[in-house]
C-alpha cells in the first residue's frame, strides 16, 4: 500500500501540515475580510449620507435607493457633537448585536467572524466606525447579516480551494525532492544489503558509499565497515576450517613418525654414555609431548581441545621442564629465573600446563631476542585463598599494539611479526578448561607480565567463562 511507504507517508504528512498552516492563515483572513466588508458598508453609508447633506430635500424613493446601494437600513452621523439620523428605513427585525470597529482587538474580530460564519440566521446588527476624511466624530449603521455571511463563505471557499491547490503542488514538489534525495539512496542501501546477504563472502558485493546527504553517507560508510569486517571474518573462518583439516592430516602422519622415533629413543636409553644417559629422559619427554600434541590436534580437528586430566602436580617440575626446553633454544643474552616455592602443588593437567608455560616463555624469549638487547625471563609461582598463581615476566620491548587489541584471538593477536597468534589463543583456551584465567597484567617498553590463575575449588565451564 502506498501510504505504508516512506514516500507515501511523507506526501500525506506534507499535505496535512500545509493544510494546517493554511487553516492558521484562513482564520485571520476571514476575520479581516469581515472587517473590510463592514468598513466598506460604513464608507458607502457615509457617501449616501453626503448626498442628503448636500440636498436636504430628497424624495423617499431616492433615499431607499441610497440605502439599498449602501447595503444598510439606517445611517447615523455624529457631527459637531450632534447625533443625527441621516438616512432611515424600516428595520425588519430587532438589532441583535453591536460591533464597534474603532480600535477593535484582533482576537475580538476573529471570534466575532467565526461566530458569524457558523450562524446561518439572517439578523440585523449595528456597526460603529470612524467616518473617513474627518467627516464627523462617528458613523453608525444597521445592516443585515445574510449578505455578509454569504460573502464570507464565498471568500472562505476560494481560500480553501487555493490552499488545497498550493498544498498539493507543494507536496508534489517535496515528494519528488525527497524521493530523489532520500528514498532512492535508502532503496539503494537496502538493495546493497540484500545483495550482500545473498553472498557475504563476495567482497564485490560490499556497498560503495555514494550518498551526498551526510546522515546517509555516514550510514553507508558504517555499513561498508561492518560488511568488510564480516567478510574478513567469514574468510578467516573458511581458512581456519581448511587449516584445521590440513593440520589434522599432518598431525596424523607426524604421530606415526614420532612413534617410530620413540621406539628408537627407547633403544638409545640403554646406552652407557653419561651424556646420552642424561639427555635421553629429556628426549623421551619431548617426543612423548609431541605425540600427545598430535593426538590432541586430531581431537581438536574433530571437535575441540580435550578436557584437562586434573591431577596434583608439583609446579616446580612443570616449570623446570618448560624453562629447560626454551633454554636450549635461547641465545646467551637471555637469562631464565624460576621462583617457585618448594613443595608447591597445584591441581592441573601437567601436559596442558606445560604447553601453556612453554608458549608464554617462548613468546618472551623471542621478543627479547628480536629486540637484541638481552633480558631476563622470570617464572614466579604463588598462591592465595582462592587461586594458585603463575606469573611469566620479561623485560623485553612489550607487545605490539595490534597484539594487545586482539589478544588471545587466533590469526589476529600475533605477538611478533609473522606470528599467527595461535600460541596465546591455545594457552587461554587450555587455562579456561582448568576453570582459570590467563590475563595480560601489563605490556610496555619495560616488559610484559602474564598472569595465570588456577582455582583451588572445582568450577564449572560456565563459571570460568564469566
From TrEMBL:
InterPro entries: 2C_sensor_his_kinase, HATPase_C_sf, HATPase_dom, His_kinase_dom, HisK_dim/P_dom, HisK_dim/P_sf, Sig_transdc_His_kin-like_C. The keyword Protease does not apply. The chain crosses the membrane at residues 6-31, 155-178. It is found in: Cell membrane. It is an enzyme of class 2 (transferase). PANTHER family: SENSOR PROTEIN CREC, SENSOR PROTEIN RSTB. It comes from Boseongicola aestuarii. Pfam families: HATPase_c (PF02518). This is histidine kinase. Its EC number is 2.7.13.3. It comes from the Bacteria. It catalyses: ATP + protein L-histidine = ADP + protein N-phospho-L-histidine.
Amino acid at each position: 500500500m502506498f501510504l505504508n511507504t516512506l514516500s507515501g507517508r511523507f506526501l500525506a504528512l506534507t499535505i496535512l501540515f500545509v493544510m494546517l498552516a493554511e487553516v492558521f492563515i484562513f482564520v485571520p483572513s476571514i476575520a479581516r475580510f469581515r472587517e473590510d466588508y463592514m468598513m466598506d458598508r460604513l464608507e458607502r453609508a457615509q457617501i449616501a449620507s453626503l448626498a442628503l447633506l448636500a440636498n436636504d430635500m430628497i424624495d423617499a424613493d431616492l433615499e431607499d435607493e441610497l440605502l439599498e446601494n449602501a447595503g444598510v437600513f439606517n445611517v447615523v452621523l455624529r457631527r459637531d457633537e450632534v447625533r443625527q439620523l441621516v438616512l432611515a428605513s424600516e428595520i425588519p427585525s430587532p438589532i441583535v448585536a453591536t460591533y464597534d470597529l474603532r480600535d477593535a482587538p484582533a482576537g475580538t474580530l476573529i471570534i466575532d467572524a467565526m461566530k458569524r460564519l457558523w450562524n446561518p440566521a439572517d439578523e440585523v446588527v449595528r456597526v460603529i466606525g470612524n467616518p473617513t476624511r474627518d467627516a464627523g466624530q462617528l458613523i453608525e449603521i444597521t445592516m443585515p447579516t445574510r449578505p455578509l455571511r454569504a460573502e464570507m463563505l464565498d471568500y472562505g471557499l476560494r481560500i480553501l480551494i487555493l490552499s488545497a491547490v498550493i498544498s498539493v503542488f507543494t507536496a508534489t514538489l517535496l515528494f519528488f525532492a525527497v524521493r530523489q534525495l532520500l528514498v532512492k539512496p535508502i532503496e539503494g542501501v537496502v538493495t546493497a544489503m540484500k545483495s550482500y546477504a545473498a553472498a557475504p563472502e563476495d567482497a564485490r558485493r560490499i556497498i560503495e558509499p555514494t550518498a551526498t546527504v551526510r546522515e546517509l553517507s555516514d550510514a553507508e560508510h558504517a555499513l561498508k565497515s561492518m560488511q568488510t569486517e564480516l567478510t574478513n571474518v567469514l574468510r578467516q573462518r573458511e581458512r581456519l576450517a581448511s587449516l584445521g583439516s590440513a593440520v589434522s592430516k599432518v598431525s596424523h602422519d607426524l604421530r606415526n613418525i614420532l612413534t617410530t622415533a620413540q621406539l628408537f629413543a627407547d633403544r638409545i636409553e640403554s646406552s652407557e654414555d653419561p651424556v646420552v644417559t642424561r639427555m635421553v629422559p629429556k628426549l623421551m619427554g619431548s617426543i612423548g609431548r609431541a605425540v600427545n600434541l598430535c593426538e590432541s590436534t586430531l581431537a581438536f580437528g574433530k571437535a575441540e581441545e580435550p578436557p584437562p586430566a586434573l591431577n596434583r602436580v608439583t609446579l616446580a617440575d612443570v616449570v623446570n621442564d618448560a624453562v629447560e626446553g626454551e633454554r636450549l633454544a635461547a641465545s646467551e643474552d637471555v637469562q631464565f629465573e624460576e621462583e617457585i616455592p618448594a613443595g608447591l602443588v597445584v591441581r592441573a593437567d601437567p601436559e596442558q600446563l606445560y604447553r601453556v608455560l612453554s608458549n608464554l616463555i617462548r613468546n618472551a624469549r623471542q621478543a627479547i631476542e628480536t629486540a637484541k638487547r638481552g633480558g631476563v625471563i622470570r617464572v614466579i609461582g604463588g598462591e592465595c585463598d582462592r587461586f594458585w598463581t603463575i606469573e611469566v615476566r620479561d623485560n623485553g620491548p612489550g607487545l605490539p599494539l595490534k597484539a594487545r587489541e586482539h589478544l588471545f584471538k587466533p590469526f589476529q593477536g600475533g605477538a611478533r611479526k609473522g606470528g599467527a597468534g595461535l600460541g596465546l589463543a591455545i594457552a587461554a583456551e587450555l587455562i579456561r578448561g582448568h576453570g582459570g584465567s590467563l590475563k595480560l597484567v601489563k605490556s610496555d617498553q619495560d616488559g610484559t607480565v602474564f598472569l595465570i590463575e588456577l582455582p583451588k575449588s572445582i568450577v564449572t565451564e560456565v563459571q570460568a567463562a564469566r
